[in-house]
Amino acid sequence: MKLNGKHVILSFVLFVFGYLIAVGYQHTSFFNDTEEITDEEWDRTFHYRQQLIDLEARNQTLQQDINDLRLDLMKMEENFSNEQQTLTEAVELKQTLQAYVGELNIEGEGIFLSLKDQNFVPSEENVNDYIVHDYHIQLVLNELYSAGAEAIAINGQRIYADSHVVCVGPVISVDGKSYPAPFEIEAIGNKDTLMNSLTLAQGVIDELVNDQIEVEYKQMNQIVMEHN
Amino acid sequence: MWLSIIFLLIGVLLGLLSDITIPEYYSNYLSIAILAAFDTLLGGIRAHLERVFNAQVFLTGFFFNITLAVLLTFIGAQLGVDLYLAAVFAFGWRLFQNIALIRRYLFDLSQKKRQAKLNK
């Protein structure tokens, strides 16, 4: 077969023609595919859409519920934490009070005092002027309390709000228990404050020394008082 | 001849493989272009049978007819008048005429052959 210009032109024209036909065919089939929506399909689409809407509505309701419950939970947690705090405060208060009434061991810094009868009593003098009396102890106790002592013990026995200290002959009775001299007084509190208030000029120590009592005192970093 | 058929097949394949989507609005243009191309092709065949075929006329006619038809459709769309119907009518008319003429020529050709056989 001879190849000439006629054939080339024909080929080219047929190529364009074929292309147009194919595109047109594809175009038509594409639109036919998309546009054919039957009533059944429409109903089904509507049905599924309705289901989706219902589901979303339910989801929203449940989400609302979740939010409400979370809020409740948060309130409850807050209440719990408040209760916890109250309880902690109550326990702390109880422990403080227990320490005050001697149900618990108590420890801390403070001072130590020892009151002793005078060893040497001149024969012409009255021996009563040379020994420790209950009012000396009371003086010390009052001074210590007013200086902010938190707990006081005499010879290891705690002194409370209703304690009494009386002189019974040669011994001193603390809440019914008798103790001979020397009397060791421990006080827990700020040791500097306590010391300063006791050693004030014309203060308690001076007074005790004037009454011929041997007084020893020192600051302690650690005093432990056993519970009753 | 084989070259033409091969090119036709290549064109069809390319058209099917290329994923061109034409908006619905332009489907009129495509249909009118196809109609114009078809008309020109048949016109070419008829001219060939009449032995008045001219390659230049055929080629220019092919593209000129397509362009004119599309242009007419475009103007019609702009004016709101269905001018493309005129093109459809004209091309359809010519299409049938060309087919009729081709049929007649082919019929004559086969009759002449039969006559020649009988004469032998």
TrEMBL record, chain A:
InterPro entries: DUF881 (IPR010273). It comes from the Bacteria. Gene3D superfamilies: Protein of unknown function DUF881. It holds the Pfam family DUF881. The chain crosses the membrane at residues 7-25. Residues 52-86 form a coiled coil. The keyword Transmembrane helix applies. Keywords: Coiled coil, Membrane, Transmembrane, Transmembrane helix. The keyword Signal does not apply. Belongs to the UPF0749 family. This is Uncharacterized protein YlxW (UPF0749 family). It comes from Streptohalobacillus salinus. The lineage of its organism: Bacteria, Bacillati, Bacillota, Bacilli, Bacillales.
Automatic annotation (TrEMBL), chain B:
It comes from the Bacteria. It is found in: Cell membrane. Signal peptide: none annotated. InterPro entries: DUF1290 (IPR009709). GO terms for cellular component: plasma membrane. The keyword Cell membrane applies. Belongs to the sbp family. This is Small basic protein. It comes from Streptohalobacillus salinus.
